Amino acid sequence: MFAELVNCMKGMVSESRQPAPAPPTNTAEFVMNSLSTRLPEFVYYPDNGCTFEVWYNRYEDVISKDGATLDEAAKARLIVSKLDAVTYARFTSHILPKRACEISLSDTVATLKDLFGHNTSVFSRRYVYLKTQRNGENLRDYTGLVNQRHDMAEFNDVSPEQMKCLVWICGLSSSEDADIRTRALREMEDNPQTTLKELSAEIQQFLNIRQDAALPERPVSSHINAVDSQNRKRDPPSPCFRCGALHWSEDCPFLNKTCHDCGNSGHKRGFCKNFKTKKKQKPKRKRRTANNVVIASTHVDAASTSRIYRPVQINGKTIRMRLDTGAEVTLLSHADWIAIGRPTLQSPQITLRSANNKPINVRGRYDCSFVIDGQHGRGTCYVADTPSLL
């Protein structure tokens, strides 16, 4: 009995001295399982900078060094296994009719970088980075946002010319510059190496083409009441007070027709208010000589006629001017001249007289742009001591 017990003890001691079998530390399966546990799942979220390139740059050393015993196909399988469901579905759809196991490691990485990279150009990301503002975040979150956008913008690789172009575009912040800003961003995306001089020239060419394209849409400008050395028929400064059409009142087709509303002749129906009082016979309009112009009505002798006023926009300012079909020049009162900003006056080169042969003091003349009844034009205004007359 004792001998059997001794033999049993000897057997147990001999078994305990035998080395335990080593775990499969060098097997591919063990390495795959270990790396799969350590690597997080890749979720594509470009707005926060979560691209595949960022994920792969972070874990490339883990895959290549800790998985040195794995072959290229196993590493490719490991990477594909870490894609989330949406990313995996998009990847496998893109490589059809091939399967993921048929794609090499280098092609797998290149395809994933292309499919799941930034959805905007690097220049656009730099533009967004420079426009970063704090919108209610606490300082820690705002600091993290700045760091994140700086990293996404790849500012370590920006050149001086690219920086100048960025600042130039960021300065186009008004709504009027929206088209220019969009065009400039597109130009920088297409050619990131564009210099500021080249960008400015490209935008200027774009503006010139846009301006030329708008020319057929603009109404033909008429030079209204311009005084020159030759007598020639001019376009009227405003619609006819007899019928509302754009012609001189003496050429009106209703000049000898009778209105059925008021019974008076000389105007179209609906324009009776301009003929409520019987007008005195207008003095015969004198033709002007080279430097002497007669104004048919001024503040002295116009009280007996019905006054018609028109709003006229001169140099961006709206002036209320009285229509005077007898005036051969456009007159601007001294007060209205001050109201439009006191533009520089030139020598008048003419003398003005009223219909009763009284001289009119002319302070000077200047060329101006104007808008009347939606029509654009240029002409010469004479600043005089009279009311503003068309």
TrEMBL record:
<keyword id="KW-0808">Transferase</keyword>
<dbReference type="Pfam" id="PF13975">
    <property type="entry name" value="gag-asp_proteas"/>
</dbReference>
<protein>
    <recommendedName>
        <fullName>DUF7083 domain-containing protein</fullName>
    </recommendedName>
</protein>
<dbReference type="InterPro" id="IPR021109">
    <property type="entry name" value="Peptidase_aspartic_dom_sf"/>
</dbReference>
<feature type="domain" description="DUF7083">
    <location>
        <begin position="31"/>
        <end position="119"/>
    </location>
</feature>
<keyword id="KW-0255">Endonuclease</keyword>
<dbReference type="Pfam" id="PF23309">
    <property type="entry name" value="DUF7083"/>
</dbReference>
<dbReference type="GO" id="GO:0004519">
    <property type="term" value="F:endonuclease activity"/>
</dbReference>
<dbReference type="InterPro" id="IPR050951">
    <property type="entry name" value="Retrovirus_Pol_polyprotein"/>
</dbReference>
<keyword id="KW-0540">Nuclease</keyword>
<keyword id="KW-0378">Hydrolase</keyword>
<keyword id="KW-0548">Nucleotidyltransferase</keyword>
<dbReference type="InterPro" id="IPR055510">
    <property type="entry name" value="DUF7083"/>
</dbReference>
<dbReference type="GO" id="GO:0016779">
    <property type="term" value="F:nucleotidyltransferase activity"/>
</dbReference>
